[in-house]
Amino acid sequence: MGLANARALCPDLVTRPADPEHETRALAGLCRWAGRYAPLVAVDGADGLMADVTGVAHLFGGEEELRADLHARLEQAGLEAQSALAGTGGAAWALARHGGGIIPKGGLSAHLGSLPVAALRLDPATAASLTRVGLARIADLLALPRAALAHRFGPALVRRLDQALGVEPEPVSPAPETPHFGVRMTLPEPIGRQEDVMTGLARLLDRLCAMLALHHSGARRLRLELRRVDRGTAGVEIGLARPMRDPSRIAPLFRRGVDEVDAGFGIDALRLTAPVVEPLAPEQLGGGPMAESGDALADLMSSLGNRLGFDRVLRPLPADSRIPERSFLLAPAARSEPAAGFAQPGPPRPIVIFAPEPAEVSPPPGPGRPPARFRWRRMNLTTHRATGPERIAPEWWIDDPAWRTGIRDYWRIETREGPRLWLFTTPQSGGAWHVQGEFA
């Protein structure tokens, strides 16, 4: 029901905002904890767990004792739970959500018969259809022909009924655990030289990259932990511009950090982990010059990122705007992909665009003509060739103070002194000239 209706019935109702992300993590942690009661435990929906306790109950003194121990520990942790034990997963699911308890062997039909049909894990529409025709309890379905039920209400109803009664098997299938990408090495004698540490790192990288290849993954961040003989630790962490699992390309990135490590009285253990990984499909060897250039660019970005910070290595990306200074944006190169087509239709743009800088024009040119001579950045320049004008109007839906003066007329100017500049004038401001870019 709605919250207002619920508060009308219960004025003292306490509510909190739902947090599905934290609830999912809490349920996953509870699933790991429940491994003390069964070798196979799986998350069942958003609020339940399913465990296969076959051959385990006698370790706790019986099914009653196992269930009592479970509830006592959950209550001690501040959790309210309902549980059921049955010969099938479907029957345990139904009973756990309708009172709980234990169904003895051979008593599935008798104990499930009094439960509503919704206890069979049916969708709400099918459960409502069964109730409308007078089939409100599971016992009402047991005596009916299966073919007629499947024909009228769909095969899902018969499948759920057979799973609850044990006719169709339904094994517990826990989700596979996330692999841990980490390797370690214990040394018989302490080491301290950089080359010795790099040799040990190379062996760890070979093992770690083989593990990554097995799971079709690549590392984006790697951490090397060095344990000293005095039980102190030192760490070297690097980032990668893209997922990678090539030891020969990763190892050089550690050299600078390893060189700065204080080995003390020696290092007797190394541990290499990949805390951040991403999917990386197998690649065809010998991809040609294009693949090699891509690898070289990734290596360059990784090297610069580890020295300067990955947020400082930027690449330009196109933006949907005709305004020169808003026609591109800068994004971290390691977290973005290069644009397929950066060039926009229309006249060419300068290789460098900067904030408008005033230019002193003397004598002032006539309307619709470029300046013959002008002074910019303490340089006297003479126009050799000019192309234009290109008129750009401001984007009226964005209030940009720099464009409140109105339209601009842009010219491409080639000077006799060498610079190839992008000049504009604003007719509404009395003919003032500015330089905003430089061509290659």
Which helices and strands, and how do they pair?
Elements: H1 3-9, H2 20-33, E1 40-44, E2 48-52, H3 63-76, E3 84-85, H4 89-96, E4 101-102, H5 108-112, H6 124-132, H7 138-142, H8 146-153, H9 155-165, E5 182-191, H10 194-214, E6 217-228, E7 233-244, H11 247-259, E8 267-279, H12 289-308, E9 314-318, E10 328-332, E11 352-361, E12 373-376, E13 379-392, E14 408-415, E15 420-425, E16 433-438
Parallel strand pairs: 3-4
Antiparallel strand pairs: 1-2, 5-8, 6-7, 6-8, 9-10, 11-12, 11-16, 12-13, 13-14, 14-15, 15-16
Helix pairs in contact: 4-9, 8-9, 10-11
Give an overview in words.
The protein is of the alpha+beta class and 440 residues long. The chain has helices at residues 3-9, 20-33, 63-76, 89-96, 108-112, 124-132, 138-142, 146-153, 155-165, 194-214, 247-259, 289-308, and strands spanning 40-44, 48-52, 84-85, 101-102, 182-191, 217-228, 233-244, 267-279, 314-318, 328-332, 352-361, 373-376, 379-392, 408-415, 420-425, 433-438. A six-stranded antiparallel barrel has the order 11-12-13-14-15-16. A four-stranded antiparallel sheet has the order 5-8-6-7. Strand 6 and strand 7 form a beta hairpin. Helix 10 (194-214) runs antiparallel to helix 11. The longest helix has 21 residues, at 194-214. The radius of gyration is 36 Å and the shape is flat. 20% of the residues are buried. The model has no long low-confidence stretch (mean pLDDT 89).
